[in-house]
Design brief:
1 helix; mainly beta; 8-stranded antiparallel beta barrel; 167 residues; single chain
Length: 167
Amino acid sequence: MKREFHLAAILLSLSLAGAALAQQDSTQVPASPNKLTWQFSPFTYHYSYDEKHRPVHMIGLEREKPGDQLDGVTFFTNSFGQDCVYVYPWGGVYHNFYGIQPLSFKWTAGLLYGYVAPYENKVPLNHNGFSPGAIIAFEYKFQSGWSAQVDMLGTAALMFQANVPFK
């Protein structure tokens, strides 16, 4: 299982990187270049206690495209210690949320893999470890380019993360 997970993670990362490169036409200068961001999460707060909960850690890569569209991939251990991946080809960001310059609202939607027996019922519409995923978040950007983000993980938890621009 772990070997297949790691192979799938590598293939998803390569396909995301390939898609980003394929969209760039060397003869045409884009109106606004893609922005790549590394994502890290050292802590997740669960709304309710479960003795089976384990620490959740996440690392990911997100791309903001022209028109404030988002896509990305994250690799994480879920609340029960299982290796998971979330691939989101759809998303958006709304900068200067409510007129607050460094605050943004974000949403993503995609496919989640990794909640398998005996925890397959912990996410809705799960089939053989695959389920739809959707996340909303608030991001606060610092002048250095780094940002802090809070992700709302449905009715289960809040994930706290740091975002670092890829240069």
